[in-house]
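Sat 14:20. Reprocessing the chain from the morning session after the first attempt stalled halfway. Input below, unchanged.
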Amino acid sequence: MSASTDEVAMAVLLDAVSLLRGEVAALARSNERVEASHQELHRRLDAINAGQAAVTDLVPLLELIAARINDAHSASQEALAGVRDGVGDVRGDLAGVATLIERLLSDARVDRRQHRSDQQSTAALIAFARSAMLGNHAPLPVNVEDDPLLEHYVLNQPPDMASTDRALVDWRASVAAADTAELIVLLKKQETPSPTDTPHSRLLRYRLAAITRAQLEARSVPAPARPTTTRAADRSAASCLERSLELADLWRAGESRALYAEAELAGAIDLFVAAERLADSSTEGVSPPELVALHRELADRIEAGDRPKVGVGRTSACYEPTAAVGRHQNR
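Finished this time. Tokens:
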């Protein structure tokens, strides 16, 4: 019984040892797998470390590449900006060329018109000269006589002592009664170009001046030097306004020799003389209301830059100078 028990115990022990061996073998195999995994892990870590080292070595190169890319981008932006500026400059140059071409074309058109005008003036001058040679002494048209090419003739014209125009008749009578000092002052004023002159008033200005100069020469008085031009250099708005105010003050002041010496007021005087002939002036020393109103209206028109047309009151040879403006001025 004890022998059997020992055998059984031995068998159990052998089975346990066999089982233990199996477990140890399984544990050994597991350890081998773990070891293999560790080795694989170490290999991968080594590969990663090697890759990191390579990447670390590449960082300066990558930074250099990035810097060069940035530099190239900046350079390309600057080049693009330069191209844009160049395009803008080219556009500006083209616009300037177009403007220049347009100005040249405009100047050419003006030159053609001026050339045609000069030809017409020359033709008219030839026709009137031929007519005068045949005995027909008709006056030149204003647009022809006012041509700058005839400026020397206008400045040096002889005095008109035969015209029956109201302005010339009045002025011939006025200069005869004036003292010499006043005539010198008036001549300087008459021969000063006005910024508000029209062709009509400009020509009349130097006709009046020719009469004044002739009166001084008749008195053996040296007259001031003749001007070199009939056209004002300054024709700005401010200069024209100042001139209009000066003429309006002269008109409002009423009768004076300076009033009749001023060519730009000749049209207003012509208009006033014509209106006076139509008004009822039967009461001596009393100004009809319509003439007072007209005098005031003309002053306002002159101040505003308006110049009544010359020639409204042209007269015949029987015209007698009068002090029409002075009697009816607005006081």
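The mean pLDDT is 79.
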